[in-house]
Amino acid sequence: MRYVPLYFLMFFSCNETYLPKQKAYFAPSFENKKFTLFTDNCKNEFLINTLSKVNEVSNCSYEIIYENYKAKIFINSVESDLKDLNIEEFFNEKIFENSKFADRVVESIYDSNDKIISSKVYTFIGNTPSNIQFYITNNKNKFFTGSLYFNSKPNYDSLLPYIDYIGDDIKKMVDSFNWIDE
């Protein structure tokens, strides 16, 4: 009889179930995108996000800087006989080095018949130094490369919204890319 009040309290004391707070990452909000045509000194033109700024590093090498997201896309343009320079082999070595840290690598291939341009975009899933790398070529004498880097310790889960946002800009850049003299 003396345990009856305890049973009564157990059944009628709480109606709500409490759960511990889940671990979550900050969900960033992004501004609407607007693009502008950028032409570099090496006769390349492509669309870039107006929220980014371009810094010339050296002749035919640039940084597309996203200050709000602590990110940079390093781009470089080379013009020479591709067979002599073996640039594609060098780029593949960079891909291999970066993929050591990746859980998975997704490759996207783009070939344009009317512009005579082909490209490959590599997206690295996991905590890698560079999350997206790409190249564009005319398969003759021109090669254009780019790599996305963040100024932070690699943490794929927290960087994913930014990777997706800037990845869309890279896709727009590749799709709109053109050599002026061709």
What would you call the structural class? alpha+beta
What is the string of helix and strand elements? HEEEEEHHEEEEHE
* Overall average residue pLDDT: 83
N-C termini distance = 96 Å
CATH class (first level) name = Alpha Beta
Strand order across the largest sheet: 3-4-5-9-8-7-6
Indicate the proportion of strand residues. 35-45%
CATH homologous superfamily name? Mog1/PsbP, alpha/beta/alpha sandwich
Number of domains: 1
Helix content: 25-40%
How many H/I helical runs?
4
Unreliable residue runs = none
CATH fold description: Protein Transport Mog1p, Chain A
Please name the CATH architecture: 3-Layer(aba) Sandwich
Name the shape in a single word. Answer: globular
Report the radius of gyration as a whole number of Å: 24 Å
Oligomerization:
single chain
Describe this structure in words.
With 182 residues, the protein is α+β, with helices and mostly antiparallel strands. It has one domain: Protein Transport Mog1p, Chain A. It is built from four helices and ten strands. The chain has helices spanning 4-12, 82-85, 87-99, 156-176, and strands at residues 35-39, 44-49, 53-58, 61-66, 71-79, 104-112, 117-125, 130-137, 142-150, 178-179. The strands form two sheets. The chain has a seven-stranded antiparallel sheet with strand order 3-4-5-9-8-7-6, with helices on both faces. Strands 1-2-10 form a three-stranded antiparallel sheet. Strand 8 and strand 9 form a beta hairpin. It is globular, with a radius of gyration of 24 Å. The mean pLDDT is 83.
